[in-house]
Amino acid sequence: MKLQLVGFGNVGRTLVLLIQEKKNKLASLGISLKIVSISDSKGTALSMKGLNPIQVLRHKDSQWNGFNDYILGYSALDAIRNLEGDVVVELAPSTVSGEPGLSQIKTALARKKHVVTANKSPLVVAFEELTTLADKNHVRLLYEATVAAHLPVFCMAQACFTSDELMHLEGILNATTNFIIGEMEKGKDFQSSLEHAVNEGWAEQNCSDDVDGIDAARKVVILANSFFQRGVKLENVKVEGIRGVDHMIEAARKSHKRVKLVCEIVRKGRQVEMSVRPRLLSAEDPLAAVNGGDMAMKLTYKTAKRIFVSAQFTGVKQTASAVLNDIIKIGSTGQAC
Length: 337
What we know:
Elements: E1 2-6, H1 10-21, H2 23-28, E2 34-39, E3 43-46, H3 53-61, E4 70-72, H4 76-82, E5 87-90, H5 101-110, E6 114-117, H6 120-136, E7 141-142, H7 154-160, E8 166-172, H8 175-185, H9 190-199, H10 208-211, H11 214-228, E9 238-239, H12 246-255, E10 258-268, E11 271-281, E12 295-301, E13 305-311, H13 316-331
Parallel strand pairs: 1-2, 1-5, 5-6, 6-7, 9-11
Antiparallel strand pairs: 2-3, 3-4, 8-10, 8-12, 10-11, 12-13
């Protein structure tokens, strides 16, 4: 399959290395991946014979100096419109408007190219439009990595519970806030815990979207639209962040409970109620045992009842792995997960 990468930050670079690392495993699955273009914010590296992963990483580090296959000003949209490709891997940064990722995904789907993305914002802004466009053009839009990195959320639901009805979902879906709360439980104040999270690589310098619950709310929107097909928007989610959880942590300590930033979707008839807020959880709740930067989800089905899944999160390689798994699904006929 011919891949076109859009966005060459940490996830994109790690994905390229992972494809190289897993070359033999992919071959054993009957999958051959050729990266024909890699677009960043300034231009595109392209070769229909396939780009050499080691070369592109080395030249990216040197601002593409001396790399003849890099065309300055040749945008991701140019590459999607004009080059032959099977799968567009869209890894642009998330933005409030969804752009430029939204236009890039729409263009790829309109040109009957499959899309794999780790970019939340286009799905938050236009989930129904994008999924409808994919169906119309008989291509796949896969987005496992948009919610909780490699936690098998959509894959598990689609493969194992197709005939069942999801009634209730709760999850810890933001690694940064879970790490910060864990540090506060050790006795640190919010600011010290935040600074430690930044120093340890769990948070960016500007992580307001994380601590204010916005990142988690975006994931709730994607989950609600995927599982419940209700056309919900970000403004439909009740959101409260973790800036004021000091008193909750003290109360939890006294009552032998834990504080977690919990994403919740509750099905009520034809409607869904959605929230992101800090909650006191009893020791018996499996979400209470999710520590550090790990993430988890608890799903309650009408027939299967409660399903709990958690995943240890250590870094960007796991996000890239989720992206690669989606690519494999497209290349493997009949592979569900």
